[in-house]
Amino acid sequence: TELQLLLPWLLQLLHCVCHLCVNHTCETEAEGACWNSVMLINGKEEAVKSCLSPSELKGQVFCYSSRNVSKRDCCFTDFCNNETLRLNPEPPTEVSGWSQLELAAVILVPSCLVCVGVILGMCAVQNLRCNHIKARKQDPEEPVDDQTLVSSDKCLKELIYDMSTSGSGSGLPLLVQRTIARTIVLQESIGKGRFGEVWRGKWRGEDVAVKIFSSRDERSWFREAEIYQTIMLRHENILGFIAADNKDNGSWTQLWLVSEYHEHGSLFDYMNRYTVSVEGMIVLALSIASGIAHLHMEIIGTQGKPAIAHRDIKSKNILVKKNGTAVIADLGLAVKHDSNTNTVDIPINHRVGTKRYMAPEILDDSINMSSFESFKRADIYSLGLVFWELARRCSVQGIYEDFQLPYYDQVQSDPSMDDMRKVVCEQKLRPNIPNQWQSCEALRIMGKIMRECWYTNPAARLTALRVKKTVSQVTVVKDVKE
Ligand SMILES: Nc1ncnc2c1ncn2[C@@H]1O[C@H](COP(=O)(O)OP(=O)(O)O)[C@@H](O)[C@H]1O
Ligand SMILES: [Mg+2]
């Protein structure tokens, strides 16, 4: 019977009210939903109505939160999100009736009574709501013993390991994520990117990184959390995702992404501070290429993963681990490939990458956005630039170059698209490869890889897998020599 009710929804497209769409309506893909939300922004209630894709729908955090500063609802019939949601429902009428009567008589005693009454009333309402939410939120995949799981003495690694061997392969269950996030104590701010701030936090004595988005950037938060929870994404060269949580601090919703903490920070910070040995460079280059190759690779099967393109590869979005390897971070702009329909799931926020690292075809807008291959090839161009930054810092017999961003000698800081297009597309300039790199085998190969990553013709560029193989052979050659 439930299936019968759901059947029309499974089979047909849904029409929803959408504020920001043409004609104020949108159409969801099959298995999507209509989304209705209201949020308190600068003291004003702001409603957002739109369509929700099936993948957004799966991240249930979006549909079921129901608190004083933000309320969301997902529904499954045409234009069901037309109703107006309101925050702060009126307290029960019995309570206010009581208070008015008593206030007329005495002042002190009744006001106390009112306070107690209001608190009880709110508890009752909250309870009702919770029960209601619980009744709706029956996810058979969520283990019942989440609480016991988190309350045991397990450390993060064990928790994540448990989940990757027994769970869905996409990460910790939402309740566990929330429980972890809510027991983190923030320590210090460690970075600022495009969205909010990154903090170092402590969870049960372990360091974690917390990326905090403002409620304005909810879509970006959701998108990044969604990408990190793609099944089988976990890899030693991709930042280890721990939890996503939307947390109410009384006046606004704080959106958290919790991940493993790496004290060296970004590759950008690391290269500014240190030079690297030839081995150090190869280890970093190999791990960066491995991370990107894993992202780009489609794995077929039930425990498979879709191909993913990063779209913002740069030294600030790569982190350096204690053991000298690297992880790819900041997946907020990534796109997934659906190989069945050969479509790209472009995120709703049309945020583009970092101009300095943009491939020529993005700068001159000739990129074929409907082909997934295009995004992978643009990543490879950016990877070439990162390799160039890295190779400059490789110290061979005490000789190395200072840290510089790509095109530091061609454009000023924060270049415009036009500045970049002139240099990269019209003048066809690329970063300079110093002569002395020819005298070191590893640097010579790195130089060759770079050139083959930043060809103007995207189809001529190396693939991530090819880069990985070539770099890994450098180590072999070196080992043989020694
Ligand atoms: N897990 C982490 N460990 C250590 N530093 C981090 C971590 N995540 C981010 N950072 C620091 O914060 C900066 C911004 O993080 P990022 O995820 O790129 O955010 P944004 O989307 O705002 O660019 C990074 O460049 C890095 O310096
Ligand atoms: Mg970033």
From TrEMBL:
ATP binds at residue 211. Residues 1-19 form the signal peptide. GO terms for molecular function: ATP binding; metal ion binding; transmembrane receptor protein serine/threonine kinase activity. GO terms for biological process: apoptotic process; cellular response to growth factor stimulus. Its main location: membrane. Its EC number is 2.7.11.30. InterPro entries: Activin_recp, GS_dom, Kinase-like_dom_sf, Prot_kinase_dom, Protein_kinase_ATP_BS, Ser/Thr_kinase_AS, Snake_toxin-like_sf, TGFB_receptor. Keywords: Apoptosis, ATP-binding, Kinase, Magnesium, Manganese, Membrane, Metal-binding, Nucleotide-binding, Receptor, Serine/threonine-protein kinase, Signal, Transferase, Transmembrane, Transmembrane helix. It is an enzyme of class 2 (transferase). Its cofactor is Mg(2+); Mn(2+). Belongs to the protein kinase superfamily. TKL Ser/Thr protein kinase family. TGFB receptor subfamily. This is Activin receptor type-1C. It comes from Sinocyclocheilus grahami. The gene is LOC107548804.
